[in-house]
Each structure stands twice: as structure tokens, then as C-alpha cells.
Amino acid sequence: MSRQQLTALIKQKAKELGLHSCGITRAKAVPEEVRHKFEQWIAAGCNGEMSYMARNLEKRMNPALLVEGCKSIIVVAQNYYTEKASPQLSQYAQGSDYHKIVKDKLHQLLEYINTLHPARGRAFCDSAPVLERYLATQAGIGWCGRNRQLIIPGAGTHFFLGELFIDIELEYDTPCTEQHCGNCRACIEACPGKALSEEGIDARRCLSYLTIEYRGELPQETGEIAGTGIYGCDRCQSVCPHNKFACQHNEPLLDANEELLSMGIEDWKNLTEERFDNLFKDSAVQRCGYNILMRNIKYILDK
Ligand code: SF4
Ligand code: SF4
Description:
The protein is built from 14 helices and 8 strands. By secondary structure, the chain is of the alpha+beta class. A hairpin with a 2-residue loop joins strand 7 (196-197) and strand 8 (200-201). Helix 1 packs antiparallel against helix 5.
């Protein structure tokens, strides 16, 4: 089988697995300017308490060091947009844990590849030192907007990214190197924490970071700027004109359960640990845990 045929079959299988996009890039070290920008961002402390982002820099900057023998990176995007969502939680956290959903699909893709050609690979989804958005641009899936999200032309920003690092050569896609935001600044203007600027994002001011990753007391203004959102924030996505193309996702595991959808403000204020465990059994919300969610509720809903 030729490399072209193999690549076409891999992309066809990704589609059958319900993945919106699949692009492929060669595994190689990132250019010096990308590395420099990342190092400056860390040096300025913009990663807040996410110290893991500063670790394994060499592996983050060179995929071949993360997975020995890796030649190609297959990048996939799973749509998570839905209008049937609890307004208290970010869109991405409505259903089951996306890490597992995307990795399962990548493992199925690897199994399929092995029916065509022997290959060894490792799957990642927001789970290792991987420059996911950069790789997605290199794999031609989309471009990175001022909101620091990957924008997929004609589809918007509500996508989980996953990567399959693999030890075979494939056909490579043309990278998306340009930013197409033009004169738009809607996300920068809409950001309640003023976390976005032309230079990038300062996580320390971002409600997603503060309500999910940050473990300390929240800044006093959090209650005023968060509205009624207690887990994450989607404003820089909801104002983005590219999201007028967003369509309902196709993955039942990402659907919110009826109990979650029925929760009102009083239910959240009275949330017990037992109910939290039932509501978020297989959810990414487990990442912050009951105590942090209750901290958010106290600052944001109980003010
Ligand atoms: S998630 Fe919210 S707080 Fe964070 S950058 Fe986007 S709009 Fe700003
Ligand atoms: S809102 Fe405007 S500036 Fe922000 S990412 Fe979307 S197009 Fe770019």
C-alpha cells in the first residue's frame, strides 16, 4: 500500500470514529521563535500555579524526545459544542471526561492502522507535554485566534484536540500559518478578567484557570465578573464570529445528564459531596473536586 493510500484510509477511519478533523504533520522540533515565545510566557509567570507547564520543556519542544522513534503526528479534533448545556459549567465539561473519549478513539485508530501496516504509537489528549494547538496548526486543521483557541474554518473553536504519535512516515498536510482575526478584537474586549491581549493569555486572570486549576482563595472580584459560571468560562469563544458555524456535536458521551441540566442556583448552593460524586462520576469536573467547586459556588453564587 502506498503512503498516500495509507494516509487516506487513516483519515477516512478518523471520520468513521466521529472525529471532525484529522490532519498529519511530521514529528520535528518546533522552530526557535515558538520555543522562545513559550519560554517568555513561562518566565513572565503567565502559567500561574500550573508548574507542570514549565517541566519537560525539551520534550514539549521536540515530539521525538517524548516518544522515541516517532515520525508522524496524527492530530484529531472532536467537536463538543452543544446548546443543551448547564449554564454553570463550561461547554466542554457537560458530559463524560473528554481525555478518555478522545484517547479511546485514538487507540481504535491505532488498532486500525495496524491492520494496514505495522505501527507503534502513543495517544495523548491534554495529558502530556505536547504543544497541542501548535501541532494542530502544523497538521493543517486550523489556526490559532486571539482567544488562544484553535479555530477550525467553517466550524469554530469548540473542539478537543488529540494526538497520535506514530513511528511510520505518512503524507503531511499543509500547515495553517496565518492568523485570520483581522481587525476583530471581540474576545479581548469580552474577557471578564482582562486575561487576553495581543501578546497572549495571562492564565492568572482567566476564570477558567481560577475556577479549575487554581487552589487558593479566589480574587475578590471573581464573584462580580464570573456571572453565574462556577466552572470555567466560555466568553472568549461565544463572542468569536467563527462560532456562528458551530454545530451540535455527535458524541453521546459528551451529553449532560438530565439531573445536571435541571440544577438551579439553589441546588448548586446546597450541593452535597454525595450529589457531586453522582453528578460528576466520569466527568472532567472531578479534576477540581468537591471542595474547589464549593469554593467557587461560595464566591460566585453565594455573594
Ligand atoms: S476563558 Fe473567560 S476569562 Fe479566560 S480568557 Fe476566555 S473570556 Fe477570558
Ligand atoms: S473573537 Fe475575533 S479576535 Fe478573537 S479569536 Fe475570534 S476572530 Fe479572532
